[in-house]
Design brief:
This protein is of the alpha/beta class. It has three helices and five strands, in the order αβββαβαβ. β4, α3 and β5 form a beta-alpha-beta unit.
């Protein structure tokens, strides 16, 4: 039985298209899952053992967080932003309390998510 080159090419094209869709999904889906809290108005701030805050893997100061919150008030249709403080497991409780106290002055609700 002789294979048809046209069917072989069509099969390879379908496999290539399927792999492209799968690879794209493997990249995009985790990013969308990670962005889901931000779409609901939650700013997730990660606290490292040195007391530094990270937002989207970038170092930020408490003053910058206040500026972000002020900018979010310009878009009332999104609702009020919520701060979520997520300390690393190695962060001492005193550092967590200091960071929480600094963030509470922003006026936004503050959630604490323990590791």
């Amino acid at each position: 039985m002789k294979a048809h080159p046209l069917l072989d090419g069509l099969g390879l094209a379908l496999v290539g298209a399927g792999l492209t869709v799968l690879t794209t999904a493997l990249v995009v889906v985790p990013q969308r899952i990670a962005q889901r809290p931000a779409q609901r108005g939650v700013l997730a701030l990660y606290l490292d053992p040195a007391g530094q805050l990270r937002l989207w893997n970038r170092l930020v100061r408490a003053q910058e967080v206040a500026e972000l919150l002020a900018a979010s008030k310009d878009h009332p249709q999104q609702g009020q932003a919520v701060l979520r403080l997520i300390p690393d497991a190695a962060v001492p409780w005193g550092v967590v309390r200091q960071a929480a106290a600094a963030l509470e002055t922003s006026g936004a609700p503050l959630e604490l998510q323990l590791p």
